[in-house]
Design brief:
By secondary structure, this protein is α+β, with helices and mostly antiparallel strands. 25% of the residues lie in helices and 25% in strands. It has a two-stranded antiparallel sheet with strand order 1-2. It is elongated, with a radius of gyration of 12 Å.
Amino acid sequence: MEFFNEEREMILSSVSSKSIKKIFHIGSTAILGICAKNIVDILIEVKDKSKL
């Protein structure tokens, strides 16, 4: 979860927050307490992809 938060902040500092609706932590690393690969899956929902 900590790594996701770091990545989320990096994304927000790189892309205009006006373009982003939500940032989701998805996949097995989003589930606390289970064994998972050390790969964090992130899904970004944007308002209008043509504005990116």
